[in-house]
C-alpha cells in the first residue's frame, strides 16, 4: 500500500467474460532472443501476469502450443514470422510494434523491428489485459507520434531537487552518486512503460559541481546510469553549463566563435561518447535567470547552440536549447521588455539559423507553467527549426503535489490549439511538435519531472497520474484526458467501478478547482516569492521578474494589446491575434492576461470581474472540500495505505483552499470597495 509499484503493480483481478479465452495464451511465453531488452520484456510479462492473474508463466515448450510470443521480426522467432505479413512489418516504425491474436497460429504475438518496440508492445499487452473489456481485436500496429519523449530532471548533485515535491533525488546525495540500481531500474521500467525514451538527469541550472559531470572524474558514474536506462530504451542527456570552459580556469573565455572554445567542446564530446556511446546530448539553459550564455560575448543563441551542435554532430548527439530566455530585471517603463514577449522576440528572428541537430525547447506558455496561460506564440512562428514543447509535470505553480491538479486536460488544450500557421488549414500545436507540419528532422515533447525519493515517487499519489499521463500523451496525443485518467486509475487501484468513477472524476475536476481558488482569469502568480507555494497577491507585484497583475482601486490585468499595451497579442497569427487583441472577443479565462479592465467589466459569463472573483473563490474552496468528501466514500474499497495517503493530502488542500479564498477575496474587496452580491463573509 505504499504506491511504490505505481501503475506497474497490476492489482489482482477476477478474469471473467470473453477475456477468459485469452487465458489459454497468457499462461506460456515464447521468446528466442537473448537481447537484454527482450529479456526485460519477458521479465515484465512474467511479473505482470503473476500479480494480475496470479499465474506463473511457463516457457512455451511444445511447438504449436498456445502462448504469447514476443520478438523482433528478424530475430528468428518462428511464431512471430508466421503471424506477421510483409505489410504489417513495413508499417512498424523503429520504436513501434504490432500485436495480433492469431487463432491459426495459436498465439498472441508481439512483434517489432527493434527490441525496444517489443518491450513497448509487452507493456501495451499488459495494459490491455488489465483494462480490457474483452472485446479487443488484438490486431494493431502502434507507432509513437513523437520522436523525442523526454523527461528533464532538475536534480542537483547535493541531492536537492529544484522545484521537487517528492523528497530528494534518487540519483545523488551529498555530491555523490547514490548506489541504488534497483530504484533506478524501477524508475526506468516505469518510464519505459509509458514510452519515455530520453532523460536528462541534472538540473538545467548547472551549478559548479554538476559542471564537472562531463569530465573524466564523473563520467564512469554517469555511464552506470546510462547502462540501466539503455535496457529500457532510454537515452541519457546532461544539462551543461555554457561557461564550462571557464571552470577551473581551463580557458579564459566561453565565446562560441573562439576556435579554442570550439575545440574544447569537441574534446569533451569525444570523452563523453567514449564513456557512453549512445549519449543523447546536451540540454542548455543560457542567458536566462543569471545563467551564462552567448550574450556575454556579443553572440546570439544560434551561435551558441551551433557551436555545441558541431561538437556533438559526429556522434549523433543533439543540442536541446531552451527558449526560456527573458530579462529578469525588468524596467516596466519599456513595455517591449514584457516577459511574455521575450521568447518570441529572441528566437523568431533566428528561425532557420540552427544546425540540423539543434532542437529548441519551448515552454507551453510565454510565462512559466501557470495554472492558465495562452499558448506560446513561437509554436507556428518557427517554421525552419526543430522544436519540442516543454511541460512541467512537477506542480510548481499548481499546488506542489500537496493539492491535486491533474494537468493532462491543460496539456491537451495546448496540443489542440490551432496556431493558424497554415492559414485556413488546421495547424495545431501537436502537429507542430510532432514535426509533421514542417517536416522537421527532430521533434517531440519534454517535461520537468515530478519524482523524488519518496516511497510513492510523487509525494501525492494522485500526482502519479500526471507522470503516467504525460508519457501516454507524448506517445499518442490523440488519447483523451479522461481515457488516460481511467486507465491510470484501473492500473493503480483495480477495477472496482465506484473507485474508477470517483478517482476519474476527482482527477478531471481538479484543474478547474485549483484554478478557481487561485489567480483569476489568466493573470497568474499571486504566490509567495521564492518557494512559490500559497497565496500572496502582491508577492511578485513590485519585483523585477515581469510577473504583474496591476491591480489598483479601479481595475486590474496586464494590457498586452497592440493598441495600448505591450503589443504581445501581435505575436499570434490570424484570428488568434485578433481574438486576443479584442476586449470583446478575448476568452474570459485569459482576459486579464491580455487586458487591463475595471472591476465592473462584464465577462461573457454575464458576471462582473469582481463578482467572478468572489464567486469562483467561494465555490473553489467548497469544491476542494468536496474532493475530500468524494475520496472518503472510497474508504475500505482499496488498500488502506493508498487510501490514507491521499486522504491526508486532500485534507490539507481543503484547508489551504480556504486560505487562498480568503486572501484573494479580501484583497480585491479592499482594493475595489465593491460588495459581494451574496454578502458572504470577507475578512
Ligand atoms: C521556473 C522555476 C525555476 C527554473 C526555471 C526554468 O521557478 O526554478 O529554474 O523555471 O525553467 O519555473 O529554468
UniProtKB/TrEMBL annotation:
<dbReference type="Pfam" id="PF07488">
    <property type="entry name" value="Glyco_hydro_67M"/>
</dbReference>
<dbReference type="GO" id="GO:2000886">
    <property type="term" value="P:glucuronoxylan catabolic process"/>
</dbReference>
<dbReference type="InterPro" id="IPR005154">
    <property type="entry name" value="Glyco_hydro_67_aGlcAse_N"/>
</dbReference>
<dbReference type="InterPro" id="IPR037054">
    <property type="entry name" value="A-glucoronidase_C_sf"/>
</dbReference>
<comment type="subunit">
    <text>Homodimer.</text>
</comment>
<dbReference type="InterPro" id="IPR011100">
    <property type="entry name" value="Glyco_hydro_67_cat"/>
</dbReference>
<feature type="active site" description="Proton acceptor">
    <location>
        <position position="368"/>
    </location>
</feature>
<feature type="active site" description="Proton donor">
    <location>
        <position position="289"/>
    </location>
</feature>
<dbReference type="InterPro" id="IPR017853">
    <property type="entry name" value="GH"/>
</dbReference>
<dbReference type="GO" id="GO:0033939">
    <property type="term" value="F:xylan alpha-1,2-glucuronosidase activity"/>
</dbReference>
<keyword id="KW-0378">Hydrolase</keyword>
<dbReference type="GO" id="GO:0005576">
    <property type="term" value="C:extracellular region"/>
</dbReference>
<keyword id="KW-0624">Polysaccharide degradation</keyword>
<dbReference type="InterPro" id="IPR029018">
    <property type="entry name" value="Hex-like_dom2"/>
</dbReference>
<feature type="domain" description="Glycosyl hydrolase family 67 C-terminal">
    <location>
        <begin position="458"/>
        <end position="680"/>
    </location>
</feature>
<dbReference type="InterPro" id="IPR011395">
    <property type="entry name" value="Glyco_hydro_67_aGlcAse"/>
</dbReference>
<keyword id="KW-0119">Carbohydrate metabolism</keyword>
<comment type="similarity">
    <text>Belongs to the glycosyl hydrolase 67 family.</text>
</comment>
<dbReference type="InterPro" id="IPR011099">
    <property type="entry name" value="Glyco_hydro_67_C"/>
</dbReference>
<keyword id="KW-0326">Glycosidase</keyword>
<dbReference type="Pfam" id="PF03648">
    <property type="entry name" value="Glyco_hydro_67N"/>
</dbReference>
<feature type="domain" description="Glycosyl hydrolase family 67 catalytic">
    <location>
        <begin position="135"/>
        <end position="457"/>
    </location>
</feature>
<protein>
    <recommendedName>
        <fullName>Xylan alpha-1,2-glucuronidase</fullName>
        <ecNumber>3.2.1.131</ecNumber>
    </recommendedName>
</protein>
<feature type="active site" description="Proton acceptor">
    <location>
        <position position="396"/>
    </location>
</feature>
<dbReference type="GO" id="GO:0046559">
    <property type="term" value="F:alpha-glucuronidase activity"/>
</dbReference>
<dbReference type="Pfam" id="PF07477">
    <property type="entry name" value="Glyco_hydro_67C"/>
</dbReference>
<keyword id="KW-0858">Xylan degradation</keyword>
<feature type="domain" description="Alpha glucuronidase N-terminal">
    <location>
        <begin position="7"/>
        <end position="125"/>
    </location>
</feature>
Amino acid at each position: 500500500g505504499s504506491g511504490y509499484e505505481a501503475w506497474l503493480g497490476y492489482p489482482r483481478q477476477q478474469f471473467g467474460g470473453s477475456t477468459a479465452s485469452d487465458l489459454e495464451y497468457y499462461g506460456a511465453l515464447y521468446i528466442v532472443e537473448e537481447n537484454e531488452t527482450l529479456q526485460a520484456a519477458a521479465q515484465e510479462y512474467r511479473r505482470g501476469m503473476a500479480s494480475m492473474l496470479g499465474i506463473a508463466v511457463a516457457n512455451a515448450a511444445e511447438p504449436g502450443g498456445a502462448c504469447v510470443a514476443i520478438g523482433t521480426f528478424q530475430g528468428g522467432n518462428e511464431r512471430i514470422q508466421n503471424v506477421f505479413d510483409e505489410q504489417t512489418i513495413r508499417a512498424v516504425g523503429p520504436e513501434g510494434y504490432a500485436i495480433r491474436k492469431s487463432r491459426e497460429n495459436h498465439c498472441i504475438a508481439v512483434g517489432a523491428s527493434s527490441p525496444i518496440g517489443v518491450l513497448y508492445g509487452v507493456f501495451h499487452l499488459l495494459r490491455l489485459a488489465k483494462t480490457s473489456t474483452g472485446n479487443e481485436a488484438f490486431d494493431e500496429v502502434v507507432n509513437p507520434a513523437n520522436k523525442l519523449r523526454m523527461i528533464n530532471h532538475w536534480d542537483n548533485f547535493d541531492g536537492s531537487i529544484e522545484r521537487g515535491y517528492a523528497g530528494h533525488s534518487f540519483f545523488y546525495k551529498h555530491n555523490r552518486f547514490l548506489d541504488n540500481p534497483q530504484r533506478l531500474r524501477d524508475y526506468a521500467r516505469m518510464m519505459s512503460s509509458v514510452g519515455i525514451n530520453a532523460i536528462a538527469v541534472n538540473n538545467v541550472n548547472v551549478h559548479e559541481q554538476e559542471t564537472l559531470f562531463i569530465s573524466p572524474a564523473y563520467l564512469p558514474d554517469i555511464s552506470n546510469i546510462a547502462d540501466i536506462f539503455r535496457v529500457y530504451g532510454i537515452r541519457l542527456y546532461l544539462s551543461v553549463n555554457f561557461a564550462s570552459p571557464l571552470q577551473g580556469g581551463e580557458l579564459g573565455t566561453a565565446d562560441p566563435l573562439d576556435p579554442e572554445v570550439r575545440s574544447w567542446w569537441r574534446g569533451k564530446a569525444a570523452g563523453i561518447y567514449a564513456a557512453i556511446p549512445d549519449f543523447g546530448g546536451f540540454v542548455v539553459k543560457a542567458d536566462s535567470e543569471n545563467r551564462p550564455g552567448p550574450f556575454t560575448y556579443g553572440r546570439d543563441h544560434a551561435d551558441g547552440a551551433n557551436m555545441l551542435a558541431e561538437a556533438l554532430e559526429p556522434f549523433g548527439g543533439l543540442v536541446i536549447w531552451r527558449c526560456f530566455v527573458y530579462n529578469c530585471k525588468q524596467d516596466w517603463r519599456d513595455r517591449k521588455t514584457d516577459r511574455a514577449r521575450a521568447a518570441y522576440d529572441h528566437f523568431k528572428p533566428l528561425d532557420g539559423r540552427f544546425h540540423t541537430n539543434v532542437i529548441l525547447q519551448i515552454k507551453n506558455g510565454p510565462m512559466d507553467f501557470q495554472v492558465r496561460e495562452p499558448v506560446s506564440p513561437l509554436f507556428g512562428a518557427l517554421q525552419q527549426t526543430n522544436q519540442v514543447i516543454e511541460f512541467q509535470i512537477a506542480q510548481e505553480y499548481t499546488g506542489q503535489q500537496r493539492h491535486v491538479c491533474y494537468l493532462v486536460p491543460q496539456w491537451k488544450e495546448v496540443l489542440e490549439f490551432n496556431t493558424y500557421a497554415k492559414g485556413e488549414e488546421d495547424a495545431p500545436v501537436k502537429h507542430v511538435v510532432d514535426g509533421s507540419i514542417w517536416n522537421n528532422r527532430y521533434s517531440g515533447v519534454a517535461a520537468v519531472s515530478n519524482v523524488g525519493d519518496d516511497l510513492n515517487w510523487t509525494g501525492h499519489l494522485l500526482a502519479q497520474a500526471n507522470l503516467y499521463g504525460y508519457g501516454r500523451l507524448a506517445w499518442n496525443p490523440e488519447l483523451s484526458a479522461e481515457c488516460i485518467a481511467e486507465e491510470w486509475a484501473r492500473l493503480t487501484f483495480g477495477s472496482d467501478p465506484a473507485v474508477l468513477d470517483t478517482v476519474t472524476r476527482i482527477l478531471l475536476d481538479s484543474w478547474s478547482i485549483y484554478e478557481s481558488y487561485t489567480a483569476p482569469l489568466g493573470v497568474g502568480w499571486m504566490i509567495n516569492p521564492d518557494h512559490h507555494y500559497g497565496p500572496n497577491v502582491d508577492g511578485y507585484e513590485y519585483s523585477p521578474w515581469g510577473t504583474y497583475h496591476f491591480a489598483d482601486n479601479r481595475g486590474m490585468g496586464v494590457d498586452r494589446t497592440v493598441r495600448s499595451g505591450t503589443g504581445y497579442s501581435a505575436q499570434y497569427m490570424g484570428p488568434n491575434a485578433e481574438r486576443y487583441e479584442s476586449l470583446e472577443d478575448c476568452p474570459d479565462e485569459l482576459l486579464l492576461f491580455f487586458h487591463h479592465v475595471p472591476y465592473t467589466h462584464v465577462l461573457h459569463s454575464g458576471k462582473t470581474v469582481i463578482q467572478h472573483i468572489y464567486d469562483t473563490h467561494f465555490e473553489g474552496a467548497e469544491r476542494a472540500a468536496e474532493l475530500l468528501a468524494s475520496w472518503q466514500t472510497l474508504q475500505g474499497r482499496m488498500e488502506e495505505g493508498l487510501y490514507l495517503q491521499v486522504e491526508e493530502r486532500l485534507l490539507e488542500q481543503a484547508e489551504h483552499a480556504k486560505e487562498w479564498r480568503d486572501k484573494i477575496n479580501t484583497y480585491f474587496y479592499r482594493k475595489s470597495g465593491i460588495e459581494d452580491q451574496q454578502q458572504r463573509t470577507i475578512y
